[in-house]
Here is the input.
Amino acid sequence: MKGWKIENRVNEYSELTVLRELDVLVVGGGSAGVAAATTCGRNGLKTALIEKYGFCGGAAVAGMSGTICGMYLASEDPSKEPEQVVFGFTEEFRRKLKEKGGVTEPQRYGRTFTVTHDPLMWREAADELLMDANVEIFYHTAVIGVVMDGEEYKGVVVESNAGQSVILAKRIIDASGDAAVVARAGGEYFFGDNGVIQNPTMFFRMGGIDMDTYLDYYGEDTICPPEVTAKILEVNASGEYSLPRHKIWIFPTTRPGEIMVNATRLAGQDGRVLNVIDPVDFTEAEVFGRKQVRDYARFLKNFVPGCEKSYVVDTGVEVGIRQTRSIEGVEKLSNEDVVTCRKREDSICRSPWPIELHSGTKPKLHWILEDWYDVPYNTLIPRVGENIIVAGRCLSAEHEALASARVTAQTFEYGHAAGQACVLSLKKNKSLRELKGQEVRARMIAAGSRI
Here is the structure.
């Protein structure tokens, strides 16, 4: 699916109040947006961030995905200790969470490792980083239009309870996760594999867990053991339950007696693939997601030792969104780039995370062992349009490649890259597409990234 032709709309919003004139506007306060805005602010740029919720975190917090995946190498050796290969802003944020007691030590996830974080502390850490970098934050504010002059992005139209206004900026970072700015400007984008995208999920947390008993049964691997899958298949066959995912993931959190559960699989009640860009699909995912949570919680309480006195603490504010729009970029990360672990001189991020494709009853995992692939800078640059760069899961990537490249450690670094690119672009008076990935990479390395 593609957008419509970009037209001159610079005068369309001329009667609206100009709320701010900025160097950089960041749209979206997820991991990519926080990294991008903090980077710009630290480098002396007049920067603002807008976010539709009253807090930062995006899929990690509102969607309660709850883990920072993508930091560690995968290995077939079960005795191998966690080996971290992604640092930069990702590591800075992890350290800040650790200082607050808001992140676990590495936990086994199949052949690799991940960490689980506290969503409240994630919000607080983001607030502190942004404020320390002198970033102006506008919560409860959404983009509803884009100010264009030909192919140049000049600003956005925002709406809040105060009404509509315009924010003008020399550079815009679309960290919405959904390519919201690019799409509203008529830019080119697509959905997954000819419209087929990964299904959303409703994460939930359960308290009242006897952790010693639970871990003795479930084990240290957060991917469920075969006996749990067998029990799900057994109770489904009996007709007592209807649990669409047979392979579930459970993560102990930083809180005593609490686990975070990734178990639901959300499709339309008519079997269709849900695309949460459509509010009808979004609503259906959330209503039936909460119903599925209760079914899985009942299963855990009845059949998993240590969960006998468990209860649902909370579900996500929204469903966990894995995929919506991807931009048509100057370059596209290919499935082959991922599986062959392609290295790039213009890389702005490493990724050792597997292709983790959620479609059907069992997630597909293609492991990248003892290695990583590189994500090139130009996957963040739309094919058409000036003064705009994206950060986060809406980068230009093929369907299966995105199923690896979309996770949190990498989206932090995409935001870091987008922020450094804006600093370079304004400092050198060059367009974002004129920049070389090697230039951006050098600034990222100087700031702590390992590429």
Remarks:
- The chain has twelve helices and 20 strands.
- The chain has two domains: 18-63+117-195+323-446, 204-315.
- Residues 161 and 420 are 33 Å apart (CA to CA).
- The chain has a mean pLDDT of 95.
